[in-house]
Amino acid sequence: MQKSILIIGACGQIGTELTMALREKYGNQSVIASDIREGSTVLMQSGPFELMDATDYNAIEDVVMHYEIEEVYLMAAMLSATGEKFPMRAWNLNMNSLFNVLNLAKEKKVDKIFWPSSIAVFGPNTPREHTPQQTLMDPTTVYGISKQSGERWCAYYHAKYGVDVRSVRYPGLISWKTLPGGGTTDYAVEIYHSALEEKRYTCFLEKSTKLPMMFMDDAIRATITIMDADPKTIKVRSSYNLNAMSFGPEEIADSIKAHIPEFEMTYQPDFRQQIADSWPSSIDDSQANADWGWVPEFDLDTTTKVMLENLNKA
Ligand code: AKB
């Protein structure tokens, strides 16, 4: 089936792989990548690209009208660690970009929106283990506050204006194709690069800090699956909990040592420790499973194997 899709924030960690997966599924010319900067060669050369600021409503509207866009994936955001350094910039980017796409859908200029939320919506008083779909949320970061507010606005635009917006709360994401930037969970990607290049890594979180994590292939599959689902099955219009695996730095180090026995890990926790301490250790995603059939495929050891194999080849 042909459809015209716009990815905003296509050059980031998720956006790059999502763009390539959607181009594979719907054809290169149907998927318009956009970002404030240019991205990887493969992304730039495989299909249309537009330089675009996600906070500029008119610029997005022009691209939407020009390409007759039906679906928008809004992947532009400032993540938790960078957001603490630039609180107002994080708030402005994360909220204004969301309002831009919600308003385009309200005006019936696009049919469907994907917007990512995060485990950062939870806070120190949220139950840490098997965090339920519906629970107390008291985020302590600007990023988390913007994601929690965004969830409420998504639910509001759906209830009030019938906007078809779909969302998942991503855990920390691990990928080998594009580096993450500015998150608290970024260590779980950096560690693989350092393990191969230097056989050692100094971790900015303490060894036992267990967080929910996911391999990128699972995250992309979840994103495309929820967007393809029959709207009647999407019962949650704020955002769905999404689970795959949970581990701490010590466990990922052990998993790497199974392949690189000389690998050494040291610990120097910084300001990101406090952010990580406010987030859940594990997530209950039974509602995503019941409503649209979500089942993860990658565990820690499979992730480590695929990461090391592919980074070694790169
Ligand atoms: C971050 O660490 O800020 C992100 C997230 C969990 O949303 N990876």
Features:
single chain; 314 residues; alpha/beta; Rossmann fold; UDP-galactose 4-epimerase, domain 1; 14 strands; binds 2-amino-3-ketobutyric acid
Averaging pLDDT over every residue, what do you get? 97
- The secondary structure category is alpha/beta
Distance between the termini: 33 Å
β-strand amount? 15-25%
Under the CATH scheme, the architecture of the largest domain is 3-Layer(aba) Sandwich
| C-alpha geometry | globular
Radius of gyration: 19 Å
Number-wise, the strands total 14
Bound molecules: 2-amino-3-ketobutyric acid
Supply the number of helical segments.
Answer: 12
- Could you give the order of the helices and strands? EHEHEHEHHEEHEEEHEEHEEHEHHH
Strand order of the largest sheet: 3-2-1-4-5-7
Biggest beta sheet attributes: 6 strands, parallel
Can you offer a commentary on this structure?
This protein is of the alpha/beta class. It has two domains: 5-171 and 215-241, NAD(P)-binding Rossmann-like Domain (Rossmann fold); 172-213 and 244-313, UDP-galactose 4-epimerase, domain 1 (Alpha-Beta Complex). Helix content is 44%, strand content 15%. It has twelve helices and 14 strands. Helix 1 packs across helix 8 (216-228) and helix 5 (87-106) runs parallel beside helix 6. Bound molecules: 2-amino-3-ketobutyric acid. 2-amino-3-ketobutyric acid (AKB) binds next to loops. 2-amino-3-ketobutyric acid binds at residues 79-80, 118-120, 143, 170, 172, 183-185.
